[in-house]
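Box 3.1 A note on notation
Throughout this textbook, protein chains are presented in two layers. The first layer is the amino acid sequence; the second is a token string describing backbone geometry. Keep the layers aligned when reading.
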Amino acid sequence: MTVMRRYYSGCWGTWCYTTLAVLLLTGCTGRGGDGSGVAGGESTAVELALQAAADAIVDHDYPKAMVQFTSALSEEPDCVEALLGRGKVAIIAGTPKAALEDLSRAAVLDADNSDVLWFKARAHEALGEWSEAVTTYDALAAVVDDRPGLYVNRGFAKDQLGNYEDAITDYDKAIELDSTWALAYHNKAAALLAMQRLPQAIEALSQVPKDDTTYYRALMSRGITHFRNGDKELGLQDLSEAVRIRPADPDVYLQRAGVYHYTGEYERAIADCDRALNLKPSFAEALVSRGNAYAELGQDARAISDYNRAIAIDPGYYLGLYNRGLFYVDKGQFDKAIHDLDRAIRKAPEKPYCYFQRGRAYKGKLMFAEAVSEFSRAIELEPEYAIAFALRAECFEQLGETEKATADRDRAIVLGLESTELDENEAKEATQDTQTGP
């Protein structure tokens, strides 16, 4: 479970679907336009094209709107309204690169146009250009600084760059401007969690208004955070309240099942997964979670059946492949494990625990050099992966590299592992928090 985190995608200023026609009919403000619109005389070709584009957008006919904006620009290449309109429609159409070309040109023509800057930043976001998005939002803030959406989105962009403190400052500014805006609290909590500041994240989630449609998600996030902070009772209280509010939402049952799983209440975890699957039979995540609970209870046939069903539903779901691979590692079926973990890593090459479990499989096959390589990759991705140091030490010992083995054992103890003499069950338990999600 991750805290809800996203950027604001709603209207900016006067520019939204239902009022776009009014904006377009004000006429062009770029070079060559006098801003006179259609009033008081015969409409020009540009004005007629803008009118047709506005009508098309009201009807949600975006291809037609794109044609009309292009027609306007063929008559008047520097028409800011046409560039802005075509750029926005390109974002809707999923072609942000084309949008950015139009919006960048519009920004040159009218550098203080807040609508142009807003959607230019949005195009950068769609392209994953977070630094450029921050720069564009900075320019927007210099023009108009009283819109909470600006600060939520700039905070989100900073978030993506790992600048969590700066992101929180922006979220706080958004909250200052609109203390009822739930999204700002959700995003602030996510940034705090990224810095492992759990109590502050709980506080932020507690400020989400109870009448907001995302309140149940705040309860889920807060419940999981309470649990991570060592308070199972409060965690289950929040998750159960989310279930009460949203009894037809399969995700709330899945999240509560996760807490039951990690507290060893596997039958309750299975019951919640059953409820989730009754609501959504194709819910691959719930199948994997239930499979994990069955595996803990030693009900292997049911566990493998659930993993197989999850992978059949979503062949690209890396956690389905990962957890089935982990199951095979624990059962000593190392070739099957490696096959699944190979596929999981192709889907999610950034997840250290996938390499760790593949290392366990190679270690089980007595392929110690290959295991060292896998544990090393896991450590590269997660430098404080204590159990990976401990198992790599065992492999170094088998390879006769005693100095490296000693160094790894010492490092594992420094990182908090009480003993490096672990059996495979302990190795599994040490990475259990990764079995149902990143």
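The chain is about 70% helix and 0% strand. The chain has a mean pLDDT of 88.
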